[in-house]
Amino acid sequence: MNYLPIFIDIKQKPCLVVGGGDIAYRKINLLLKANAQVNCIAKEACGNIIALADDNKITLTQRNFESSDVDAQRLIISATDNKQLNAEVSDLANFANIPVNVVDSPDLCSFIVPSIVDRSPIVIAISSAGKAPVLARLIRAKLESTIPHAYGKLAELAGSFRDKVKSKFDNIEDRRYFWERVFSGVIAEKVFSGKVDEAKVDIQAQLDNTNSSEVGEVYLVGGGPGDPDLLTFKALRLMQQADVVLYDRLVSKDVVELVRRDAELVYVGKKCDRHAVPQGDINQLLVDFAKQGRRVCRLKGGDPFIFGRGGEEIETLAENNIPFQVVPGITAASGCSAYSGIPLTHRDYSQSCRFVTGHLKDGTMNLPWDELAVEHQTVVFYMALLGAQHLSEQMIAHGMRDNMPVALVEKGTTPEHKVWTTTLAELPNVVATETIKAPTLIIVGEVVKLREKLNWFDV
Fold first, then answer.
1. Among this protein's residues, is 43 annotated catalytic?
2. Computed from CA positions of residues 273, 270, 367, 344, in that sequence, does the dihedral angle turn out positive or negative?
3. Structure pTM?
């Protein structure tokens, strides 16, 4: 190791920053986050630093640096563009055995300021020993995307129970096993969901041995329209910690690839009226797996609450007292339209948007056509490919112009993304003559005309 990684307590300790520019301002903010008493020496200071001084958050002395300024300081940072001054500050600090950092000058530093992932009291520091700070920041960005912000709350909760757990379990291995279950199970998920009080009750119940029958949890996760980069951080985290995953046909292979490698995968996809597993059986599977104490991810394409039957599934979970979470996903309408260069609303073309399913539970397409066939509105039809002719006829019959622009988006946001543009009158002919496969979204509205100008994805 080039440096020994350590954490220094500078709460209410005097720390000196030499320099008054934007870089100095960033370093000052970092010290303030650690609750330091910050003294800034700079002949000229930027507006942000002056504002901090005016708010009495730091002490600002606007003059040239003097050697006596290092006296009684616990830590020093020099952030000027004057190489001679930076070297002087470094020499004085080293002579006084005060830790010093000179920005962008590793040879003058006795310590390095790392890239930081802050989930206080959990803090992760990444350093390249000054060799590649941009790479360190990229690594930090990757960690930021996988570590929930609520980890700090989880650490605080664990700290409040540490003595009780130590008293309960004499053996260090028993304590480790207890905490591993807490940090990777339902209790942790309750903390992440903001249910800290419930989590406290559950930990106490486990310590009291009153929580004898452990029930798992179900995660109803929106897998988005296909592009795995569109998953939310929370969706990815839950997918990677689930013991069993029930997934639909509309979940792309690339998204399924992100599931934990040793998780049990259960395909419950549906295609038109041919169901791999009937909906009632899916609901019961979720209950059965959870009652086995397993963490269950119900992975659905798009958003589970937009034509995804998510409401039906969690109704069954609620009736069986199974804990669950719902993680929204980017619905097909948003994803497919955005990747096709078609804004769903636009001040010049559309002031409202309707999402409509073209396949009702009884197999009909009985829709409020009068409300849909209006100008200055975008209508997005889900699961309407087979009913395209009926859709066209009814929209025109209820007053929609036959030359209204229409787009069909097949497998939107994926590498197989395809778009056909036509008119409402020609829609049935396009469906009949082109090889268009589900899943395909149909967008009706003047906004479709913007595709030629705004298309960015399939160019």
1. no
2. negative
3. 0.73
Give the tokens for residue 107: 């040879």
d(CA 126, CA 140): 7
Question: Residue 193 carries which DSSP code?
Answer: T
Q: Specify whether the CB–CB gap between 235 and 326 falls below 8 A.
A: no
Q: How many CA atoms lie within 13 A of 109 on its CB side?
A: 18
CB atoms within 10 A of CB 207: 16
pLDDT tens for each residue of 113-169: 999 999 999 999 999 988 888 999 999 998 988 888 899 999 999 999 999 999 999
Q: Annotated catalytic residue: which of 248, 300, 303, 411?
A: 248
Stretch 252-269: mean pLDDT, rounded? 93
Secondary structure class of 428 (helix, strand, coil):
helix
Tell me the residue type at 166.
K
DSSP, collapsed to helix, strand or coil, labels residue 153 as helix
Torsion of CA 309, 315, 317, 321, to 10 degrees: 170
The CA-based diameter of the chain, rounded to the nearest angstrom, is 88
The half-sphere exposure of 323 on its side-chain side, counting CA atoms within 13 A, is 19
222 contacts: CB under 8 Å, gap ≥ 6: 232, 235, 300, 301, 302, 303, 304, 308, 327, 328, 329, 330, 331
Rounded Cα–Cα distance for residues 233 and 179 (Å): 24
What sign has the CA pseudo-torsion 331, 332, 336, 339? Answer: positive
Phi, psi (deg, nearest 5) at residue 397:
-65, -25
Q: Phi/psi at 119 (nearest 5 deg)?
A: -125, 50
Q: First-to-last CA distance in the chain?
A: 48
Q: Which amino acid, one-letter code, is at 110? A: S
CB 430 within 8 A of CB 408: yes
- 270 carries an active-site annotation: yes
Annotated active-site residue in 234, 270, 291, 418:
270
